[in-house]
Specification:
Elements (H helix, E strand, L loop, with lengths): L8 H10 L12 H4 L7 E5 L5 E6 L4 H18 L3 H14 L6 H16 L3 H13 L4 H6 L6
Antiparallel strand pairs: 1-2
Helix pairs in contact: 1-3, 3-4, 3-5, 4-5, 5-6
InterPro entries: Thioredoxin-like_sf, TPR-like_helical_dom_sf
């Protein structure tokens, strides 16, 4: 990723504005053992307390790295019950990176966040419908299938 992804202007700007990066050699102890780094690159999204919420293993081109990082941010917010913040990160994936590999999971998780913050089941069904129409081959359609019955 050093040759293609990290030097990309959009990636540099995103990292500068939105995350605190820490680059550690894959064999650096104790971190590589603690975070089970078995292959490079491995990108781990952590919360304030150092708990993992998302992981990406292997090369990603620039147009996939940013949405993957946003997904990690959204999952961190979701796991810490910051649903409105999670929705903002997931909405950014869907508005700016709707063709990315992260988009289907963002649709699913956005529906769950909207449900958790409102206790209204309608967002779950809407998530299923969007997945079925926009990402019909995604595993997330199968995961959301029960919501079609709502």
């Amino acid at each position: 990723m050093d040759a293609v992804t990290y030097p990309n202007a959009k990636v540099i700007d995103f990292i500068d504005r939105k995350i605190v990066p820490l680059r550690v050699p894959a064999d650096a102890q104790p971190l590589s053992t603690e975070f089970k780094v078995m292959w490079t690159p491995t990108l781990v999204s952590l919360d304030y307390y150092g708990r993992e919420h998302h992981r990406t293993v292997g090369f990603l081109p620039p147009d996939e790295l940013v949405p993957s990082l946003l997904l990690g941010m959204g999952k961190t917010d979701f796991d810490t019950e910051q649903f409105n913040d999670a929705i903002l990160h997931l909405d950014e994936i869907l508005s700016s990176y709707s063709k990315s590999a992260a988009a289907p999971e963002a649709v699913y998780l956005r529906g769950v966040c909207r449900f958790k913050s409102s206790h209204d089941a309608k967002p779950l069904k809407e998530a299923y419908e969007k997945l079925a129409s926009d990402y019909p081959d995604s595993e997330w359609v199968k995961r959301a299938q029960p919501y079609s019955l709502l």
